[in-house]
Amino acid sequence: MSAVLALALFSSPAPAQETPPATPASPAPQNADDARPAAVDPVVLQKKADDLRDAVADPGSSLYRLHADAGALFNNVQSQTPVRRPHARLIERENVDGRIGTLDGMIEAANRRFDAYKLRFNAPPPPDATASAETAVAFKEQGRADFDKKNRLTDEQMGVFRYAPAEVAGGVIELNRRLALIATRIGEAFAYSTLVHEATHARDRAAGKLSPEHAKDGEVNAFRVEYLWLTTMDPTGMRLIDLQLTLDDWTKRHPKDVLSAHALAYVQHLTALRQTGGEEKKLRKFVDDLGYEDDPDKPAAPTPSPVKA
Ligand SMILES: [Zn+2]
Q1: Please, which residues have CB less than 5 A from ligand 1, an ion?
Q2: In the prediction, which pLDDT does 271 show?
Q3: Alpha carbon of 195 to ligand 1 centroid (Å)
């Protein structure tokens, strides 16, 4: 885990602190020591220590006797239930149920996360994320968002916003069909990241801010909003880290599971995006590293990163 991500983890808004449960009305302990974890009784300790010394000094002691005596002295430290339990900490894990991703499913998953965010922080989600989410819904309802039925996207291109440079109106969102399968490994809420990215391109186009000559500016903004989505659906970043570690471990043990390898590449791409912290300069470098060019005739150059959008 990088320092940047670690920082993002702990600098995010935190949920309200749990209040400790009220102390039940129980009889007062007879003395203060009763309320503490049991300490070692010096009398018992003395007896056990003497026994062990005798056993060690006696050349006739068997290994089993020595082991038993040493165990009686040292091995029971944790045999008592601690009086205080450690502070409970919820590990947030993405619920991945193996469902194949659909646009409706992704949108539903996104809506649930927007609601959860409002409930958790008692604040509206980032406006740019909700605006792009609304565009995604509108495109879906207008039949202008779908999976790439003609299979025109390359393997590493997870989505595209297609528009005619001569026309201001129009444009369609296409998602790579592979994303539907990747969703079986990462869940629809993470897969939604590409949809919100393409919807941001669509918004920018409608606002007259997207052109082939400024492709990189368009990518920076789309990835910025995609970053905002990630922080909305996974405020602490725990879900993303857990998913990446799980997939990393799984693919090492199951090298023939190609789909999980694709899912891991997608998650690594999201992690790299998360590590920008949504900062303009870092987002620009992120886009450069992905090989995007401000040239309508030149598609994004091949790079080591297996995911583009
Ligand atoms: Zn893009």
Answers
A1: 219, 222, 309
A2: 98
A3: 10
**From the CA of 224, how far away is ligand 1's center (Å)?**
11
Full-model pTM: 0.71
pLDDT tens-digit map of 99-152:
999 999 999 999 999 999 999 999 999 999 999 999 999 999 999 999 999 999
- List, for residues 277-291, the tens digit of each pLDDT value: 999 999 999 999 999
Give me ligand 1 centre to Cα 213, in Å: 14
What is the distance in A from the centroid of ligand 1 to the CA of 221? 9
Do 244 and 197 share a structural domain? Answer: yes
Q: How far is the CA of 157 from the centre of ligand 1 (A)?
A: 9
249 is in which domain, residue-wise?
A: 96-289
Looking at the structure, tell me whether residues 124 and 59 fall in a common domain: no
- What total number of domains does the chain contain? 2
Q: How far is the CA of 267 from the centre of ligand 1 (A)?
A: 17
What is the 56 CA–ligand 1 centroid distance (Å)? Answer: 74
Three-class SS string for the chain?
CCHHHHHHHHHCCCCCCCCCCCCCCCCCCCCHHHHCCCCCCHHHHHHHHHHHHHHHHCCCCCHHHHHHHHHHHHCCCCCCCCCCCCCCCCCCCCCCCCCCCCHHHHHHHHHHHHHHHHHHHCCCCCHHHHHHHHHHHHHHHCCCEEECCCCCCCCCECEEEECCCCCCCCCEEEECCHHHHHHHHHCHHHHHHHHHHHHHHHHHHHCCCCCHHHHHHHHHHHHHHHHHHHHHHCCCCHHHHHHHHHHHHHHHHCCCCHHHHHHHHHHHHHHHHHCCCCCHHHHHHHHHHCCCCCCCCCCCCCCCCCCEC
